[in-house]
């Protein structure tokens, strides 16, 4: 996992939610209060090659944003290391700071961080001027150029944030990140709140930017269709862990983790035949509480293939085909690798799939 | 053909604002047959929710229905006095919202509010009521319903809260449920569960549904017929699969082409240029004209409503039709 351009090695992040008032009082008087923490990200290994687009997919609360923020150097990990081209993204120690401008993030709500009284041109120039990417004198031309690159009128430099529509806001947010000349862009659900026709425009913008700039892209999304369209590889998260990872078309065509399979089965498809009997194969049950995830494999309570071992032993994310990994004890593998698991359960899994 | 359950004709709903009149629903007509699922799709602001609210007399003042009729079993319910509307709402027509907190009261247990909902339309003892509520929760897949009746809404997950709202909507076995983006806020795995259950419930109980969604794929898997809205109008309607496979209206085509699911991975999507028009100052004629690849000068005139078998479309130059 060290050969990548962007690497996350054994990265975890825990949050300890603040206690409800009643329990705080109990605790203040020395009462026993259980303080459970959320393992938002739990020992994740991930790497991106230079110029690659990786989709990070999973249902809400599985840790996508937390992992993205750590890779972007905005949130320090509780454990593990994050690096770009071998250099750490943040300093270590008690008050970690971001040490690089090589990675930038486009937030899910891009305008939350913009001053409503500041013109877009000034807001976008701040970072590049501060980091010496452009002189004060050259800043206006520089920002105009980036607005043009993302398909906005260069004259919009004199507009205020509220004067932009939803799709334009995403373009502004992307221009703002790109104006920092990053090698790596982390985008958190950048098209989730947009209507399909506007979403298509922004997807096209990402395709163009990928062609024209040598960008490495971490694209966080809960939309499997958008990721299929835009990303070379995909990583599927479930309750803080990556359960499967590999080239997008291979993972979609032949998922090896039961959760990936279930997720793909849950996505409504466009039905174009009259009278087609539409059946989903919904995953049983609900997402367990992240405060108390089940032991062993986090998915075992909902997994149709779960065996005893799954309830006690955490499956490692192991190679299952060239360039593919899955974290299931019984994942079918194409490789002749000697691992702890025997091959017969793989037969169970694929056999069960055929009979369903 | 028997008479439709719901017959909406020329519906116009407007909101007077400081900047002018918002024509949120601008001459909408459609029918829903008994037991049928009609999908109402369109992008945000196209008037889907206001259409739904208009059908049950829940338009926020100073908004008002300016024209048209909504006939339920032949009887126009537009402008009925409030008590008569209340007798219909929840009993013959009920609504499920994207956000279940529009239905659920946070300070009452689920059991208490279900009992209130029951007693809004029938006299029933506490014991019988409780049994009905347990059955209703069971029907929507809530585990251990007897115990859950004593929980408050916040003690349920988002998916379970939506199930409770659906159970309440179905309590009186209504003829029609208007479901406004009921799964949009939910994760796909929970969405798949609820879609499956609602489809089965509609079939088993013979309840008709208006399924409002911005998601073509969801609608295509739920609805018998589809109506596509743009700028307050239904620009195309017909059997769902037929319309989506072979759309007549350029806007429907544009929506489909915007979907990554249809395109080759990595290729540019054929996105619709521009953005939706302001409902305050709609262009004359076809509201889609400024974004339409087929537009001609004549599109500044009102487009004709074409009827082709069980399909309708509102366009001067429909696709797939010989001129
Ligand atoms: N600042 C925080 N404090 C406490 N818990 C948090 C915080 N941020 C995230 N979490 C928790 O961590 C988990 C993962 O959250 P997140 O990374 O936002 O997931 P996703 O982006 O996949 O929806 C969730 O259970 C969430 O509640
Ligand atoms: N109470 C209101 N006052 C003024 N305008 C409104 C009101 N409610 C809705 N609208 C407007 O009506 C149009 C249609 O809204 P809506 O039916 O909610 O769209 P959709 O559900 O298709 O997203 C929008 O332009 C919206 O801004
Ligand atoms: S490891 Fe076991 S429980 Fe986990 S997904 Fe695989 S089969 Fe299911
Ligand atoms: Mg998130
Ligand atoms: Mg709406």
Q: Compute the separation of the termini of chain B in Å.
A: 31 Å
Number of strands of chain B: 12
Number of domains of chain B: 2
| Helical amount of chain B | 25-40%
- Assess the beta-strand content of chain A as a share of residues: 15-25%
Which runs of chain B of at least 5 residues are low in confidence (pLDDT < 50)?
A: none
Order of helices and strands of chain B: EEEHEEHEHHHHEHEHEEHHEE
Helix-strand pattern of chain A: EHEEHEEEHHHEHEHEEHHEEH
What shape does the CA trace of chain B take?
globular
Q: What is the CATH domain class of the largest domain in chain B?
A: Alpha Beta
Give the full name of the CATH homologous superfamily of the largest domain in chain B: P-loop containing nucleotide triphosphate hydrolases
Q: Which ranges of chain A are low-confidence, i.e. pLDDT below 50, for 5 or more consecutive residues?
A: 340-356
What Rg of chain B is obtained from the alpha carbons, in whole angstroms?
21 Å
Q: What gap, in angstroms, lies between the N and C termini of chain A?
A: 36 Å
What compounds are bound to the protein? adenosine-5'-diphosphate, iron/sulfur cluster, magnesium ion
Mean pLDDT value of chain A: 88
Largest interface: A-B, 46 and 50 residues
Number of DSSP helices of chain A?
A: 10
Topology summary:
The complex is a heterodimer of chains A (356) and B (323).
Chain A: E1 6-15, H1 21-28, E2 38-48, E3 53-57, H2 64-71, E4 79-84, E5 87-88, E6 103-106, H3 120-130, H4 139-149, H5 166-178, E7 184-188, H6 196-212, E8 216-221, H7 224-230, E9 233-238, E10 241-247, H8 248-253, H9 258-266, E11 318-321, E12 324-326, H10 344-355
Parallel strand pairs in A: 3-8, 3-9, 6-7, 7-8
Antiparallel strand pairs in A: 1-2, 1-4, 4-5, 9-10, 10-12, 11-12
Helix pairs in contact in A: 3-4, 4-5, 5-6
Chain B: E1 6-17, E2 20-32, E3 37-41, H1 48-55, E4 64-72, E5 75-76, H2 82-88, E6 93-96, H3 110-119, H4 126-139, H5 145-148, H6 158-170, E7 176-180, H7 188-205, E8 208-213, H8 216-222, E9 225-230, E10 233-239, H9 240-245, H10 250-257, E11 305-308, E12 311-314
Parallel strand pairs in B: 3-8, 3-9, 6-7, 7-8
Antiparallel strand pairs in B: 1-2, 1-4, 4-5, 9-10, 10-12, 11-12
Helix pairs in contact in B: 3-4, 4-6
The structure holds adenosine-5'-diphosphate (ADP) (2 copies), iron/sulfur cluster and magnesium ion (2 copies).
GO biological process, one term (chain A): peptide transport
Keywords (chain A): ATP-binding, Nucleotide-binding, Transport
InterPro entries (chain A): AAA+_ATPase (IPR003593), ABC_transp_ATP-bind (IPR050319), ABC_transporter-like_ATP-bd (IPR003439), ABC_transporter-like_CS (IPR017871), Oligopep_ABC_C (IPR013563), P-loop_NTPase (IPR027417)
């Amino acid at each position: 996992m060290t050969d990548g351009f962007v690497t996350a090695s054994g990265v975890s992040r825990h949050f300890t939610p603040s206690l409800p008032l009643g329990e705080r009082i109990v605790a203040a008087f020395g009462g026993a209060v259980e303080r459970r923490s959320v393992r938002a990200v739990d020992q994740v290994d991930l790497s991106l090659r230079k110029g690659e687009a990786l989709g990070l997919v999973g249902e809400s609360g599985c840790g996508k944003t937390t992992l993205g923020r750590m890779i972007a150097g905005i949130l320090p990990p509780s454990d593990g290391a994050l690096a770009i081209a071998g250099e750490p993204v943040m300093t270590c120690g008690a008050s970690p700071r971001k040490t690089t401008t090589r990675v930038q993030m486009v937030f899910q709500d891009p305008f939350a961080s913009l001053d409503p009284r500041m013109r877009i041109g000034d807001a976008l120039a701040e970072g590049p001027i501060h980091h010496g990417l452009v002189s004060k004198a050259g800043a206006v031309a520089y920002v105009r150029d980036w607005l043009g690159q993302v398909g906005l009128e260069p004259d919009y430099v004199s507009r205020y944030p509220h004067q932009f529509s939803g799709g334009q806001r995403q373009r502004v947010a992307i221009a703002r990140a790109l104006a920092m000349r990053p090698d790596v862009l982390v985008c958190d659900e950048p098209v989730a709140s947009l209507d399909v026709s506007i979403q298509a425009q922004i997807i096209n913008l990402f395709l163009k930017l990928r062609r024209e700039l040598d960008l490495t892209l971490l694209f966080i999304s809960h939309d499997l269709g958008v990721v299929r369209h835009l990303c070379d590889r995909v990583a599927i998260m479930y309750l803080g862990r990556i359960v499967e990872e590999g080239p997008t078309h291979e993972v979609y065509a032949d998922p090896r983790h039961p959760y990936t399979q279930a997720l793909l089965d849950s996505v409504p498809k466009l039905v174009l035949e009259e009278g087609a009997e539409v059946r989903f194969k919904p995953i049983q049950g609900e997402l367990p509480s992240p405060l108390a995830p089940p032991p062993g494999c986090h998915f075992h309570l909902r997994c149709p293939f779960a065996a005893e071992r799954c309830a006690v032993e955490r499956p490692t994310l192991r190679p299952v085909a060239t360039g593919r990994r899955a974290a299931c004890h019984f994942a079918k593998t194409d490789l002749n690798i000697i691992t702890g698991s025997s091959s017969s359960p793989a037969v169970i899994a694929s056999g069960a799939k055929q009979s369903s | 053909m028997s008479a439709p359950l719901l017959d909406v004709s020329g519906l116009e709903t407007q909101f007077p604002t400081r900047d002018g009149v918002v024509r949120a629903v601008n001459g909408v007509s459609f029918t829903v047959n008994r037991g049928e699922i009609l999908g109402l799709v369109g992008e945000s602001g196209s008037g889907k929710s206001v259409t739904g609210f208009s059908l049950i007399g829940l338009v926020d003042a100073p908004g008002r229905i300016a024209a048209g009729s909504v006939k339920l079993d032949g009887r126009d319910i537009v402008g009925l006095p409030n008590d008569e509307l209340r007798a219909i709402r929840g009993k013959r027509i009920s609504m499920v919202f994207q956000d279940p907190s529009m239905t659920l009261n946070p300070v009452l247990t689920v059991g208490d509010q279900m009992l209130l909902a029951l007693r809004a339309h029938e006299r029933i003892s506490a014991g019988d009521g409780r049994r009905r509520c347990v059955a209703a929760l069971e029907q929507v897949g809530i585990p251990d319903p007897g115990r859950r009746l004593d929980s408050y809404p916040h003690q349920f997950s988002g998916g379970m809260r939506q199930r409770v709202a659906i159970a309440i909507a179905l309590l009186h076995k209504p003829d029609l449920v208007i479901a406004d983006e009921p799964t949009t806020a939910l994760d796909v795995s929970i969405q798949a569960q609820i879609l499956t259950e609602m489809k089965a419930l509609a079939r088993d109980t013979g309840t008709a549904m208006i399924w409002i969604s911005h998601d073509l794929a969801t609608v295509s898997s739920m609805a018998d017929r589809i109506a596509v809205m743009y700028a307050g109008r239904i620009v195309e309607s017909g059997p769902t699969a037929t319309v989506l496979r072979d759309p007549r209206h350029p806007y429907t085509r544009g929506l489909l082409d915007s979907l990554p699911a249809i395109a080759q991975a990595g290729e540019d999507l054929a996105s619709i240029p521009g953005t939706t028009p302001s409902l305050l100052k709609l262009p004359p004629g076809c509201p889609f004209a400024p974004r339409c690849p087929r537009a001609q000068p004549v599109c500044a005139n009102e487009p004709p409503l074409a009827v082709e078998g069980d399909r309708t479309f509102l366009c001067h130059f429909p696709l797939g039709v010989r001129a």
